[in-house]
Amino acid sequence: MIFVNLPVADVAASTAFYEAIGMVKNEKFSNAQASAMNWSDTIHFMLLDHAFYATFTDKKIIDAKTSSGMLIALSLDSRTDVDAITQAAVTAGGTELHDPEDMGFMYSRAFADPDGHGFGPFWMDPAAAENGPEHMADAAA
After folding, report:
1. Is 90 exceeded by the pLDDT of residue 135?
2. Does residue 62 lie within any of the structural domains?
3. Range scoring the smallest mean pLDDT among 3-12, 26-35, 84-93, 125-134
4. Same domain, residue pair 39 and 1
5. Is 140's pLDDT higher than 70?
6. How far is CA 132 from CA 49, 79, 80, 98, in A?
7. How far apart are CA 95 and CA 105, in angstroms?
8. Which of 86, 97, 114, 138 is the most exposed place for a label (fewest CB within 10 A)?
9. Which pTM does this prediction carry?
10. Strand partners, 73
11. Residue-by-residue DSSP string for 73-118
12. Is 82 left (phi over 0), alpha (psi -120 to 50) or beta?
């Protein structure tokens, strides 16, 4: 399993945002300091208020609106799903980071949550996912 821990300014507001983009809150592992949000059976996002997040590290918590610590790519089943999660994110208070990118074999968008954490939802053609994109095979030959 993967647990992505994200520092957030407002746990309740962040929880509402993540629910709006399709995640499900796990009440068993949530309280006023943290919300456990399930993306899938194996991928979970822990939304931690800054004070609680700080108990896990001695490092300064960055302002994700002005600095980048990571970008989280989320594989989806279709282009329509990529568009839907991006629209849901913007509607729920997130920010679209750039125009859609269509590479033929892969389609992606990007958004930031209200705290500035970057997400890149994408769809990849199953054949390209298995064999690699054609232009990569041409370069290797």
Report:
1. no
2. no
3. 125-134
4. yes
5. no
6. 40, 18, 22, 25
7. 25
8. 138
9. 0.88
10. 120
11. EEE-S-HHHHHHHHHHHHHTT-EEEEEEEE-SSEEEEEEE-TT--E
12. alpha
Tell me the C-alpha distance between 87 and 103, whole Å: 20
pLDDT tens-digit map of 31-60: 999 999 999 999 999 999 999 999 999 999
For residues 123 and 37, give the distance between their C-alpha atoms in angstroms, rounded to a whole number.
22
In a shared domain, residues 132 and 88: yes
pLDDT at 7: 97
My answer on whether 74 and 36 are in the same domain is: no
Domain region containing 4: 1-56
CA dihedral 128, 39, 87, 71 (to 10 degrees): -70
Look up residue 25 and give its amino acid: K
Same domain, 3 and 46: yes
